[in-house]
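Example (one chain per record):
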Amino acid sequence: QYNSNHHEPPHSHPEDEILYILGGSILMGKRTLTCGDVLHIPRDTVYTLNAGDDGAEFLRVGFGELSAPAA
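Predicted structure:
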């Protein structure tokens, strides 16, 4: 959850991630995401997010290495 007009500075994650917007809005680049929108962000992608005037509620799911360990 982000408060009103929260700015998330440039960062990346070592895993793919999915953001599902539950409420409010998030601006990513020139794209505005609102309730029901889903965004896939590939691992190691540098990005920034800005919450809208009403803040933003979202679910973040990270997908780490999915392969089975070597036997």
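Caption: Residues 34 and 47 are 18 Å apart (CA to CA).
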